[in-house]
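Q: Structure tokens for this one, please.
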Amino acid sequence: MNAYTDKPWLSQYRPGTPAEIVPEFPHALAMFKTAVERSPERTLIYYFDHAISAAEVDRLSDAFACALNARGLRKGDRVAVYLQNVPQFVISLLGTWKAGGVMVSVNPMLRHKEVALVLADSGARVLVTLESLFHEVAQAVVPDSKVEHVFTTSELEFLGANRPGLLKDSKRQACEQASDFLSTLQEFMGKQPAPVEIASTDTALLTYTSGTTGPPKGAMNTHANIVYNTQTYREWMNLSSKDVILGVAPLFHITGLIAQITTSFLLPCPQILYFRFDPATTAELIEMHGATFVVASITVYIALMNNEEAKRRDFSTLTKVYSGGAPVSPATVAAFKKQFGAYIHNIYGMTETTSPTHAVPLGGDAPVDPNTGALAVGVPVCGAVVYIVDDEGNALPVGEIGELVSGGPMVVPGYWQKPEETARSFEARGIHTGDVGFMDEKGWFYIVDRKKDLIIASGYKVWPREVEDVLYTHPAVREAAVVGVADEYRGESVKAFVSLKAGVSATPEEIIAFCKDNMAAYKRPREIEIVDELPKTASGKIMRRELRK
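A: Here is the predicted structure, written as tokens:
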């Protein structure tokens, strides 16, 4: 038995003989236009309890495109979107494409220096942002950028009759130096934007890497990249118009953009948006709207398991459950299935691969490697070609550990205005991912860890993920992260940061003793630091670099 047997139609996608999906649309905008033609009254967005149809999103995004036309936006100009998970994000994305522009997604957690870097690097002429973020950050940054026009909006727009508890502290804030987003849309409502030619090779998005290995770089996700991997989600996860997408991933992130936004266009089906992640609100909306499909970081699932409100909610509709962006412990997968009845399928990809290159087939359980304890991230998805290479770039045989090089129609052509960085990371075979792993004899791929996170303790290689997987089996540990620290005797030693489950206590000494019984001495943490929360990116990745500091 191999990774593909539970889905007969996947047999054509065996490693080594990948069959590509035939793109159904010439560009990403065509997916949305087809959805409007087919199902204009179909709900496309649930914002908390308020429904917005495909036709309404079409009218609003037409108006935004006309506003951009009126302000002189030219084909290829960049529009920066600095928003949380609100309907205005989707409207801005579509309006930008309708005007021929490139959307620049800006992480709403970024502050002054970081936002300034993205605006300068992208050369964005337009910025759409929340009123709160304008006052806190953008107002000070815009004067030194190329931004000529700013639109501000609020998370309090598009609500139903009742204000959700998550927004109880939100308030409107006037922004004199900016145009109000919805007022501008009303000005242009009913008008049609000037027609624009879009090629499949045109850049649709500039999505900035998380900067884990240096300053963020803008990946140039083309329309072809987006169409391809949007169709991959539909085929791989067996999605249809009957599904309801839980929009828990940040929309600025490649997962939110493809697994949520453009997949909802393609099917078409609703996506549930609710400003930002909150476990109690998430659980309430899963039950309210009957969410069926989700891709989230493992930290989201851990938060749900530890939330009392979530424990009382009905998750029975949520059957297509995936996790990506960070290592997944087998113990966490087992605990979530026991509590909520759903198996967490692994998925793996990058900003530069427009989301997935690997995934666990829906309905199948990923194997655990007996030697490393790693849970498989999946098998290559449709059209992905993956190599394991050594430090010299030579392909390694089955079972050998090396760096993953991912290729296929989902891989971007390079980084925005960074030819040297592009040449360093990309080659004919694909992109060097920086992740270390291996493939087993049945075609399953395993990620051992990030190449740069390797710890050398007394001459032995220690992969942090392997230690973290053991820590997650301790009954008191909620989250864990492992880093190497300088050690005069060993060169490096292992240090672990852990947060504890609510109502449970444990001392560092007790956790170290637990590790002593469950791993080799050289892998065992010599120091445990208990913290309230581990630092994370907006997409839920634990930031080891911050812990090293």
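A few notes: The domain at 454-548 is CATH 3.30.300.30 (GMP Synthetase; Chain A, domain 3). The chain is about 30% helix and 25% strand.
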